[in-house]
Amino acid sequence: MPKNFKRHLITAALPYANGPVHIGHLAGCFLPADIYVRYLRAKGEDVKFVCGADEHGVPITIRAMKEDKTPQQVVDDFYKIIDTSFKDFGISFDIFSRTSNKEHHETAQAFFKDLYDKNLFEEKESEQYFDEEKQTFLADRYITGTCPKCSNENAYGDQCENCGSALSPEELINPKSALSSSIPIKKKTKHWYLPLQNYEAWLKQWVLEDHKEWKNNVYGQCKSWLEQGLRSRAMTRDSNWGVPVPLPDAEGKVMYVWFDAPIGYISATKELTPHWEDYWKKDDTQLVHFIGKDNIVFHCIIFPAMLKAHGDYILPENVPANEFLNIEGKKVSTSRNWAVWVHEYLEDFPDQQDVMRYVLCANAPENKDNDFTWKDFQERNNSELVAIYGNLVNRVFVLMHKLCGGKVPPFHMDIKDSLDDKLYEKIVTSKKAIEESIDSYKFREGLFQLIDLAREGNKYLQEKEPWKKKDDQKSIDNCLHLGLQLCANLAILGNPFLPHTSQKLCRMMKVVDRMLEWKNAGSIQLLKTGYSLNQPTLLFAKIEDEQIEQQMEKLHANAIAHEESEVPTEAANTNPIKDEIQFDDFSKIDLRSAKIIAAEKVKKADKLLNLTLDLGFEQRTVLSGIAEHYTPEEVIGLEVTLVANLAPRKMRGIESQGMILMTEDADGKLIFVSPKKASKVGSPIH
Ligand SMILES: [Zn+2]
Predict the structure, then answer these.
(1) 621 and 506, same structural domain?
(2) CB-proximal residues (5 Å) to ion ligand 1
(3) How far is the centre of ligand 1, averaged over its atoms, from the C-alpha of 629 (Å)?
(4) Which residues lie closer than 8 Å to 660 by C-beta, 6 or more apart?
(5) Which residue has the higher pLDDT, 590 or 505?
(6) pLDDT single digits (tens) 126-167
(7) Of 284, 310, 342, which residue sits at a domain end?
(8) pLDDT greater at residue 502 or residue 166
(9) Domain residues for 606?
(10) Residue 14 three-state SS
(11) What CATH number did the domain enclosing 19 receive?
């Protein structure tokens, strides 16, 4: 922190209430924000940590339509899941609000009205895309097409998630309606635009000159945006789901989600404290937005322009955005179910929040995209948390109980040596280094300093060898006295990163939370001589190969089950025919008729059935994503078409040896592609 701030308002990007949270979300903004906030709290700073669910926008209405629910039901369900995940994982928001709240609607409407009354909007009638089949205007998100910048074929009308560019639907190549796949037509409608070009000169000064200290990835994106030149951007949409535009002639119009969502930070603060204005309107407040890279333009350009236009609010002091976290080398995808979900992680690894916190922080995509792999998760746990941190604490406690009667031994100044000095020096310099890292949002670096301090402690024990000094109690005392003070320091310095572990350590040391105050770090008088301590409990447990294999299978099975259940959707039917192939390509596929002779559900996989197929000359095990459409009893005896030479894939520990062809009836139920008359099982299909 370069300046002396009196208070801090820390925000984390509002998660979208259209699905649960995954570890990519955690690594992107929630974990770094939580580390920063816990650090500020430990320093005794006045800090508020606000967040909430972003509950408006098109994907929610699309999901509601697909699932035959109201948008409110969709967001109510996901709000609960998301809120619980954060609580269970230990993301320590002071408030986790929601943008469908009355408070938020009022705040956002007042904000809008303020800008309207100051005549800061442009009112424009324009031609907008309209889906004739569904008789509705299409918000930008409803239109998909090819990104003009990176050629990603699944770009949205407002943004390309592949390259992060903000787009308008007009820029998309081959635009299509996401509701019906029809080609949208243009129709007239009126909207309110924020002329961002009016703020361009000011933004250039504020970002490019006054905030050169921002992270390179953030600064660079802003620079390229500002150099391209800003244009007017519509702040309203045609929809029934969102914050209604508070004007008399605005029926059927709601605010653009990116207008109302960041105002959610303000409404959440309002909901949290009657002194909310101190946090939003006083210059000595540090406002920091933690976000992922896909939100940079909204937090560094559009929202600041809105705040500037309004005039009453402070601006962010920093926007430390992270890049993306991939999983096993592939981009996280909610729609393809390629993700590690937080609530599922906590089911499989209860009380091991800190292991995931550690791994996500160690691999934090702070400057570039980074990769999460289960193998690395295991390795970091076993060879760093268990072997370095956990091992040090355990050794010190076990030896202290064995050689010092379970009490903090005295420190004898007369035999203090250079190794003692070196360890003390390391504690002091580590504190300083960790502070510098956190202050400059380099959380990985801070975490590595922490582990390095524990590593130094192990070295110290190894060099001192108290277990060999049976007849030299004074030497034993000094070593374990310092060892224990080091453990106390690790609890304090590690608390922002690994809070659950620090709590465990406090219980072992029989100290109250107050010891974790940051100012105590660097001291070697934290535990009083003669104070009796508890027996050690293991801070971290080894993670076995089997657990990692299970997670890998789960990851793949989820994705495959999803793929298979998604194949025959409405979109697939109306999609254009795939690219032409040659007969040789087709003849590579070996299709066989087969008979289902046994079927059962697959444990912990709602969509999968485990089928045994008879091909006459052999039997096959095939997993098929049809469990939501058929019971095992219904399918036994059916004749089906099998892709017999598809490479086997392992899911849930079971090898699937082929794929069954399915199509869909008029009601969307999956049906088998079967011969009309009984065929000879195993015979090829040409
Ligand atoms: Zn793109």
Answers:
(1) no
(2) 147, 149-150, 152, 160, 162-163
(3) 37
(4) 611, 613, 622, 624, 626, 640, 641, 642, 643, 672
(5) 505
(6) 888 899 888 788 878 889 999 999 999 999 998 898 888 888
(7) 342
(8) 502
(9) 580-672
(10) coil
(11) 3.40.50.620
